[in-house]
Design brief:
By secondary structure, the protein is an alpha+beta fold. The chain is 44% helix and 9% strand. It has two domains: 16-290, 2-methylcitrate dehydratase PrpD (Orthogonal Bundle); 300-439, 60s Ribosomal Protein L30, Chain: A. It has 21 helices and nine strands. Helix 1 (21-30) packs parallel to helix 7 and helix 2 packs across helix 4. The protein is globular, with a radius of gyration of 23 Å. The mean pLDDT is 96.
Amino acid sequence: MITHDVRAHRSKDALPREDQLAWKIAAVASDPVAVDDEATDMIINRIIDNASVGIASLNRGPIKSARAMANAHMRSGGATLFGLSTDHLVCAEWAAWANGTAVRELDFHDTFLAADYSHPGDNIPPILAVAQQCGKNGADLIRGIATGYEIQVNLVKAICLHEHKIDHIAHIGPSASAGVGSLLGLDTEVIYQSVQQGLHTTVTTRQSRKGEISTWKAFAPAYAGKLAIEAVDRCMRGEGAPSPIYEGEDSVIAYILNGRTARDKGESPYDPTYQVPLPGPGEAKRAILETYTKEHSAEYQSQALIDLAFRMGKEIEGRGGFDAVKSIVLHTSHHTHYVIGTGSGDPQKMDPNASRETLDHSIMYIFAVALQDGEWHHVRSYAPERAKREDTVRLWHKISTIEDPEWTRRYHSPDPNEKAFGAKVVITMEDGSEIVDELGIANAHPFGARPFGRAEYINKFKTLTDDILDASESERFLDLVQQLPKLSAAQVLELNPVAPAGYLVENDAKGIF
């Protein structure tokens, strides 16, 4: 890996293209290095993972809306929608919109956390949609997805967006643009312009994950994927982009990220430097192997805490039950405390009438339900009647979080052997006794007690889809995707589980399209 120093520059510096981050990203994307077997295997796992959660959410509100919008843009020779056959094709950017929303809706696919946080599987819907529309084969698709993961993971390692209240989809714009460019075998110049347009059009604020969190949380990454496809299309036609998009005097670093912070402090906005790692020429793209999926349908920082709650709940029951609990304090990282904990200051996170999107960003709610139920279910655990249960509300309101500097350090550690996303939990009972336990990483994490492998991804797929898909369709899809490197373009078009006739419920509300 090569670490690149990236900072803002004055326009008069005339920063050469070859020194710009967008060009370096494009050079990685256009490098034809082969994707190795281990990374290929994980790409297959993540396509299965995305399909699991995408099919499970087919009849949820945001997906019905997204599918209705996509269905207004039918196209012969286009791309498929989750649940529908190859007889039903739409424009690639709209397939990315609908399928990306389905993948994100349950907050249940893969994750990567570093300086910022991300769901790198959000790159798959736009890259797959373009592969289907443009007649690309399995090897092409693997190359594109490997690039999408590589760029997003390394941007997330280096550039923190959330400290500036910018939503993390701003890293998807460049990564998906690069992935599509790699899939199509475009030259460095076209990908360079696409990456810049992809970033420029996807800088949005974190209000999408603050306060009353709405269904937009599911749409946000799909929006970035759709705009990435449109960016590549424009640049393939010869159009340019705001440049340099990262380093420009009035651009992202100078006016949105660390340059703006420096300016607010009376310092030079051109001095703060980001160090972005990227593969060197000829170096394999393996960043997908650093990412991890979810066993539970909730914010990733809650994964280890759900596992921990399962075992702590049993001990509480043996000590007099949940009404004998006086308080529960989670000693955790800055991110967990301020984003999904009581440090957020969001009263909605303690509200039994809150939306599902808010509840899955409330570690207090999640921990309370996991303690009581000893399980986590993507539907039952968020049901309104579950959130409003009186004994749950009493327990929920006894839970708080505090930041522990050691957990924050471990959260940001570059050493994978000590990186952690959990907490130490101190439960104080009414009699003054305590139950203390901790867990740093989820059981399903690559370093966890039960790491996910192919069998676990397949089991997750079947668990989420067995009551939806016919058994023959489930087996067809699973058999096909596991042959990904050898798939023809026609077979790539079939990489979509089809729901039984009559299963899909459509949104009939009239819109503009």
